[in-house]
Structure formats: C-alpha cells, structure tokens
Structure to design on (113 residues):
C-alpha cells in the first residue's frame, strides 16, 4: 500500500491592534506587515475562534523501498519527515482544492467583534 509524507496545517490567527503613523494607507500597511518596523507586542492575542480548517500544504509519495523503518501512525520523527519532504528528491504531489483550502469562508475579520 502506498505511503505518503503529508504536511498539514491548522492556522490560528494572531491579532493585535496597532497605531501606525504614515503619509498614506499603503505605507501604513507596509509598516504593519513589516515585523522589524512594527514588532509584535506582548498584547498580541491568538484567536482560536477564527482558526482556519486543517489543510494539506504539501505531500509526496514514498517509494516502496524508501525508508522502510518509517511506520504509519507510530510517532514518526517530524524532523526526519520534514527533511524527506523538503530536502530529498521526492516529487511534491498536487493537492486538490478540497484539501489545500478546506471550506474556508471569511465570515468576519480577525480580531473584530
């Protein structure tokens, strides 16, 4: 049976309200996304209520004779799997939209009630 290395993500937004002085909105937004210009403060909050669904971001199939000691569901070493996924010659497989994006629906902006 084929075995796949899969990277999955569960993205939890972190938000913070900041005041940025700038000559225009584009410049203010550039500063806001620049962690050096506007470092995150200690009052930043994780917002689990607005977390996105679990998605698959990358996958590769292991050849049958490749790393036979890796066992499915046996607490595989995450570093080893990451190295195999990104540092080996394994071909990354296309991920269908159903798994790559989940059922994302932007119902509200993060951090606002």
């Amino acid at each position: 049976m084929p075995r796949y290395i899969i990277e999955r993500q569960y993205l939890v937004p972190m938000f913070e309200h900041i005041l940025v002085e700038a000559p225009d909105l584009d410049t203010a937004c550039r500063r806001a996304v620049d962690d050096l210009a506007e470092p995150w403060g200690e009052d930043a909050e994780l917002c689990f209520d607005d977390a996105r669904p679990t998605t698959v971001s990358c996958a590769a199939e292991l050849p049958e004779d490749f790393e036979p000691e890796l066992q499915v569901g046996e607490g595989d070493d995450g570093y080893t799997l990451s190295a195999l996924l990104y540092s080996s010659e394994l071909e990354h497989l296309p991920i269908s939209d159903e798994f790559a994006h989940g059922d994302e629906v932007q119902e509200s902006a993060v951090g606002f009630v």
